[in-house]
Amino acid sequence: GEPEEAVDYRTYCRRDAAAQDRFWEALQDGGVRIVPEGTWFVSAAHTEEDVARTLETVERALAQV
């Protein structure tokens, strides 16, 4: 079925954890590191190219999952 929007802890616990793991692995393989909590950090040290490369990696990772 359609994925449920995670709006609280209970709906988050019903997520497809295996798909989330595959997504994180694909990001890591593409050189994008996120912490297990799913937090993303952007700073002034990141260039426009860094952001664009990250977004491309996210698109590829989502396509794989």
Describe the structure.
This protein has 65 residues and is mainly alpha-helical. It is built from three helices and no strands. The mean pLDDT is 88.
Q: What's the helix and strand layout?
A:
Elements: H1 9-13, H2 17-29, H3 48-64
Helix pairs in contact: 2-3
Strand content: under 5%
* Helix count from the secondary structure assignment: 3
Residue stretches low in confidence (pLDDT < 50, at least 5 long) are none
**Subunit organisation of the chains:** single chain
The biggest beta sheet reads: none
Helix percentage range: 40-55%
Shape designation: globular
Give the structural class: mainly alpha
Along the chain, the helix and strand elements come as: HHH
Query: What's the total count of β strands?
Result: 0
Q: Please compute the radius of gyration using only Cα atoms.
A: 13 Å
Distance between the termini: 15 Å
Average pLDDT works out at 88
Structure at a glance:
This protein is mainly α. The chain has helices spanning 9-13, 17-29, 48-64. The model has no long low-confidence stretch (mean pLDDT 88).
Fill in the keyword field for this structure.
3 helices; about 55% helix; globular; about 60 residues; mainly alpha
